[in-house]
Structures are given as structure tokens and as C-alpha cells.
């Protein structure tokens, strides 16, 4: 975790707790006070705040540097944190008798967050706080690597690169200055560089002199990191388009496949969630049936073959959302504002109600609640030819929802599918109870705010 993310977390908690204590003192409200008897409630509040701030990307540095996205997330986090704190009295104080205090509490949590984040954007997200870096990379890949980092973090300033590949004629390569080892050393001596990112795919290019210099930097307290590590931390994605034949060095996808405790938890969660989901689905069927008769005019359910775990084919079941002859021209991806989707179908998709029958697939063990979304075999074959390591997403069960679904929107281009694969592989590599909970909360917010597609 970067120093800036740690700073954001610490100050978020501090300003909220300080605001509540201040409001409690000014208005004499014991509900807001932090004392020996109520200190555990403050810990619970801090936990809620940090959890929901992580879920809604308040610690995404790119989002945190933009006024609209940052303040929108701050309002969302303040609202949901207040709601959970007020509605979990077993872990938090009982609701105050004077209900106006609830409104005070909401503003005491949300307004300090908004004010602090506005100050952060004005001061700490300015150019003087940029992270200044040097790349160690082949000249032919320097522009791509630099652009990929700057696209996701506007505060990431690449001062130059040390070429580990064949020499180039110009001292500059597409706007990035090539540095000698002496040039780079002088930049560090003048304190103009804070980090070195090693992105060279050629081991032979790391000379003994360059290696010794990197060791000296580490011993002096400077950060020396590998490119894929930096990219993953900044984007929550795996850069499959870059790692090439070295993919398996960076992707230990067997980690949680061999964690028996996690596998037991995951299956138990799937069974409980699918039983609850099927009960809710049965309750919904009469209402969906009426809407289907009035607007969709066709079969209630829709079944289709999809590719699952270890490339095994299974039949997925959904509430039908498209017109009856939706694929008369052959298989095609659904797109935004797809004319084949009926008006009632748009509602079902926006609320994710169309996905509820898939809890039957989950109960049968063909799917999981969380995982990469299953695709049709014809699309899998097409995408596997175009996108490296696309088949890797089949090492886990497909999911009802997933990291790619909550992080990116619908898309049909090769670039869109590459981006989705990067998110899917990040989940497979990093999956954990905490990451699962993040996905569940973001999925629920999609349902509540009708953001489904």
C-alpha cells in the first residue's frame, strides 16, 4: 500500500472522529462522545468507514485526484457508513431518543469527509506532490509502459528511462528522455526522483553496474519496484498484454485453489446465498411473469450454453430480457442501449433481477456467486485467439457477479474484453474473503441504484 493511501485512510478516520467529538461537545450530545465506555463504538465506526471507503474507491488515487469523482464517493461513503452505524445497535449505541441527532450524525460524518477531500485535491494532488520515477525498460516498450502508468495516475511523473535493450538513435523516445546511469544517479542526488520501476523483459539488459546501483538505492531507502507490481496496485488489474511469456511468474493462480479453508468458505457461502436467492426468485416469479406477458410476450425463462470451470459446457438460466428472435442473425454480444432488449427487459437488467434464476446453477455447483462471468463457447474461441491467456479465467467457477462486473462497464471491442480479462485475472490471483465482500457490497449498490446493464 502506498504512503498516500495510508495518509488518506488515517486522516479520513481522524477527521470523522474529531468532527463527532466536536459536535458532541458543542451540543452536549453523549451519542457522539468518545470515552472509556464508548471507545469500541468508535472502532466499529472506523471499520465501517474504511471498509466502505475501500469498496467505493475513495482510495483509488486517480479518482481521489478528481473533484467530481472524489466528492461523489465521499457522499456515498458518508451516507452508507452512517446508515450501517445507526442500524447495527448490537455493535453500536442505541439510537438516540431525539431523532434530530441522527441528522446531526450524518452531517458530522459526511461534511468533514467532503471538506478534507477538497483540501486534498487542492493541496496534495498538485504537481509538487507528484511521484517522480525512472523506468528501467527496453526503448521499444518505454512509451507503452509510461503511458499505462500515467493513464491510471495523473500524479505519476516519468522523468526518463534507462534503456536495457538495443540502442536507439535519438536520446529521446516518443517524448521520454533516455538517461545514462550517470544521469539517473545525479537525479537521485538532487532528490528529484522518488522511485525506480523495473519494466525490462530482457534479463541480459540488467548489467552488473545497473544491478549494483539498484542495490545501493534500496540500501539508501529508495523504492525499487517491478512494473507489474506497480500496475496491479494502481489499477487492480493484471497487465497480461505486457508480461507475455513470463505470465506465470506474476500469476500464482493456484494460491487460493489450494487453500482448503477458503474453498470450504466459498462453497458454503455459495450454498447459503443460492438458497436465499432461490427463495427470493420464487417470490419474484409471479411479478416477472405478469411483466413478461405484458411487455416481453414470450417464454419466461431463457437458457443458453456457457463455458464454465475447466472449459466444461453448462446451461445457464435467466429471465428473458430480449425479443424472441434476438439472434436471428447469429450470436452477438449484448451492447449498451441494445435494441433487442425489451422495455421490461431493461428494468430486469437494471435491477439484476434477470440473473436470479442462476442461483439454481450456483446450487448445482456449475457457478459461484463470485467469479468471472461465463461466456458462450463461440465468443471464448474468438477471444482466446485475440487476447493472450484468455483461457486462464476458466481455472475457477464462473460467477453471478465478479470483479470485472463491478469495476468496468459493458463493451464489445477487443480492448474492452482485454480490460475485463485483466480484472478477472486480478480476482483469481487475489481472491479472498475481503475482496469477495467488496464485490458483494458493490453489486448490492448496483441493484439498489438500478445501475445494471
TrEMBL record:
It holds the Pfam family Bac_transf. InterPro entries: Bact_transf (IPR003362), EPS_sugar_tfrase (IPR017475). Residues 267-448 form the Bacterial sugar transferase domain. Signal peptide: none annotated. It is a multi-pass membrane protein. Gene3D superfamilies: NAD(P)-binding Rossmann-like Domain. The chain crosses the membrane at residues 7-27, 39-59, 71-91, 103-125, 268-290. It comes from the Bacteria. Keywords: Membrane, Transferase, Transmembrane, Transmembrane helix. It is found in: Membrane. PANTHER family: COLANIC BIOSYNTHESIS UDP-GLUCOSE LIPID CARRIER TRANSFERASE, UNDECAPRENYL-PHOSPHATE N-ACETYLGALACTOSAMINYL 1-PHOSPHATE TRANSFERASE-RELATED. Belongs to the bacterial sugar transferase family. This is Exopolysaccharide biosynthesis polyprenyl glycosylphosphotransferase.
Amino acid at each position: 500500500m502506498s504512503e498516500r493511501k495510508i495518509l488518506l485512510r488515517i486522516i479520513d478516520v481522524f477527521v470523522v472522529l474529531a468532527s463527532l467529538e466536536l459536535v458532541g461537545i458543542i451540543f452536549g450530545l453523549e451519542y457522539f462522545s468518545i470515552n472509556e465506555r464508548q471507545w469500541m463504538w468508535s472502532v466499529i465506526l472506523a471499520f465501517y468507514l474504511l471498509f466502505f471507503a475501500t469498496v467505493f474507491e475513495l482510495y483509488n488515487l486517480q479518482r481521489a485526484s478528481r473533484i467530481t469523482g472524489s466528492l461523489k464517493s465521499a457522499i456515498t461513503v458518508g451516507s452508507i457508513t452512517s446508515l450501517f452505524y445507526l442500524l447495527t445497535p448490537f455493535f453500536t449505541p442505541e439510537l438516540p431518543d431525539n431523532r434530530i441527532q441522527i441528522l446531526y450524525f450524518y452531517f458530522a460524518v459526511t461534511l468533514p469527509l467532503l471538506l478534507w477531500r477538497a483540501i486534498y485535491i487542492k493541496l496534495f494532488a498538485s504537481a509538487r506532490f507528484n511521484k517522480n520515477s525512472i523506468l528501467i525498460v527496453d526503448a521499444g516498450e518505454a512509451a507503452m509502459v509510461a503511458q499505462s502508468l500515467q493513464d491510471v495516475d495523473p500524479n505519476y511523473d516519468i522523468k526518463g528511462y534507462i534503456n536495457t535493450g538495443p540502442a536507439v538513435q535519438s536520446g529521446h523516445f516518443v517524448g521520454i528522455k533516455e538517461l545514462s546511469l550517470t544521469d539517473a544517479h545525479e537525479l537521485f542526488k538532487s532528490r528529484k526522483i522518488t522511485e525506480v520501476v523495473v519494466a525490462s523483459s530482457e534479463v541480459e539488459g540488467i548489467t552488473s553496474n545497473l544491478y549494483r546501483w539498484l542495490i545501493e538505492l534500496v540500501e539508501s531507502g529508495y523504492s525499487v519496484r517491478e512494473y507489474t507490481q506497480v500496475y496491479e496496485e494502481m489499477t487492480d488489474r493484471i497487465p497480461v498484454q505486457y508480461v507475455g511469456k513470463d505470465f506465470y511468474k506474476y500469476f500464482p493462480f493456484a494460491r487460493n485453489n489450494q487453500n482448503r479453508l477458503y474453498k470450504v468458505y466459498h462453497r458454503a457461502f455459495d450454498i447459503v446465498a443460492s438458497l436465499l436467492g432461490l427463495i427470493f426468485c420464487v417470490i419474484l416469479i409471479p411479478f416477472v411473469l405478469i411483466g413478461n406477458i405484458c411487455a416481453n410476450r414470450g417464454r419466461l425463462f431463457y437458457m443458453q450454453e456457457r463455458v464454465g470451470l475447466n472449459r466444461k459446457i453448462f446451461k445457464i438460466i435467466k429471465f428473458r430480457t430480449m425479443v424472441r428472435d434476438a439472434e436471428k442473425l447469429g450470436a452477438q454480444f449484448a451492447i449498451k442501449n441494445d435494441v433487442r432488449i425489451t422495455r421490461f427487459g431493461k428494468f430486469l437488467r437494471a435491477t439484476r433481477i434477470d440473473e436470479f434464476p442462476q442461483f439454481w446453477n450456483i446450487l448445482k455447483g456449475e457457478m459461484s456467486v463470485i467469479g468471472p462471468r461465463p461466456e458462450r463457447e463461440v465468443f471464448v474461441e474468438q477471444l482466446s485467439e485475440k487476447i493472450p491467456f484468455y483461457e486462464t479465467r476458466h481455472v475457477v467457477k464462473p460467477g453471478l457477479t465478479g470483479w470485472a462486473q463491478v469495476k468496468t462497464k459493458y463493451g464489445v471491442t477487443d480492448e474492452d474484453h482485454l480490460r475485463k480479462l485483466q480484472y478477472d485475472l486480478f480476482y483469481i490471483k487475489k481472491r479472498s474473503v475481503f475482496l469477495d465482500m467488496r464485490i458483494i457490497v458493490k453489486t448490492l449498490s448496483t441493484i439498489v441504484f438500478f445501475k445494471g446493464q
